[in-house]
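User: Before I run my own analysis I want an independent prediction to cross-check against. Here's the chain; please return only the structure tokens and, at the end, one sentence I can use as a sanity check.
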Amino acid sequence: MQPADLVLTHAAIHADGRVVGALAVRDGVIVALGADVDALIGPATEVRDLGGATVLPGFVDAHVHLLDGGLEALGCSLVDLPDPDVIVARVHACAAEADGKGWLVGSGWDLGAFPGANPQASVLDDLGRPVFLLSADGHSAWLDHEGLRRAGITANTPDPADGRIERDELGEPTGTLRESAVDLAWDVLPAPTRAERDAGLRAAVAEALAHGITAVFEAEADRASLATFRRAARRGELDLTVSFGLTTDPEGGPGQVERLVRWRRRFSGDDRIVGTAKIFADGVIEARTAALLAPYADSEDRGAPIWDDDALDALVAALTEAGFAVHAHTIGDAAVRQVLDAGERAGARLSLAHLELVDPDDVPRFAALGADAVFQPLWAQEDDYVRDLTWPVLDADRGARLYPIGSLVAAGAPLAFGSDWSVSSLDPLQGIEVAVTRRGAGGEEAPALEPEQAIDVATAIDAYTVGAARAAGLSDRAGRIAVGRPADLVVLDGDPYAVPADAIGELRPVLVLRHGRPVALAP
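Assistant: Structure tokens:
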């Protein structure tokens, strides 16, 4: 056999359920493991002694907004700011740094920082320019009065379907928009330029690689974002394998599938897989836009699904007929059931993301349907969102069933993890720690959130590798270390199987390889 290009030795390499000490790569592909490696070392082979370091498959993020996250990071970022005063001060600093008097656009503010999750327009009025600030979860926006004016939002503006304009007792808009109401302002914002999109994606790819992520599912892709990824690939800047969830329109009906087929034909590439459609089934509990089977605790409101059953059935059937998988945003238990029902009737290839509430009767259906349960494990902790915004609007029974990861695993559901970045941290190791401990990464002292829903380390790592690859439609390209597979690997500075569970999130990649080539953090 021809000599290998690269050999990794003196390592703990986790390869399909066994641990081997060495690995050989040729032309970007793993060609040998363990004792078979020695025979492939030639005079030109690069041999790296890893000194006993742990090697895992490159992480796969099964639900991320990579391009949007990169664009947000280049703008006015309000991520992880603790209270309204600090957030407003940051917005003022952004305004001082920006030129002109056009729109000031920012993102990342935390709903939990504001009473009732309703920041007020008046707080921003002294900036003298229109302001649009997207919330961290992407389901709310905060505008000043000039922004509301430019968006044409007044007391006479009706709430759009599946959206809400927050109002005072006189019916005047207060500055916060929910769900589809965000589009009323979004539609008048200047679109990012091609250069801004390219720079945002470049920054996001670097961030993903720094966390050991070598493949992603881009959870909401339109034509402009598909073109941005293709440009990056052609320039040799896309050091990731990417699967796309193509955005669907609740008003578009089955006729929109023809457009998605054209996108699939035009934008697929060697490491760009266009084969999944994305559906928003509901909103979020914090804004009371998630669709629930029973009313919220303090009202008769159940939230409303974004689709009626017939429209969803028709689209899922058309997508399935055209060869697309279906990936759905599902927060409330009613949305989960609606998507499972539609997928079952159509025989669809399903993945359901978020899954904050799943009715116990629907838990075994995931395994029966082969539907991937795509959790954001970092959310499964008792944080401000849960304490201040979620528990107060749910009865005790539902409040004790948040993020039922353990129940779905016990029932045999295919499990996958993703970050939903930029909603939350891109770091898979932090997510793995929370999945195992049900506490905040970094040893936070809050009680564990439903500790019976915790899972073991091996299951959590699988969910961020082979499970995420399956959910993303990348099973043949990512998530495993095996002969014949791409050499997409992450080398860690410690062993997540051996360190205390509450220290997993402190581990860091020291080397990331994609197709056998160092792409991040080379020592």
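Sanity check: The two ends are 30 Å apart (CA to CA).
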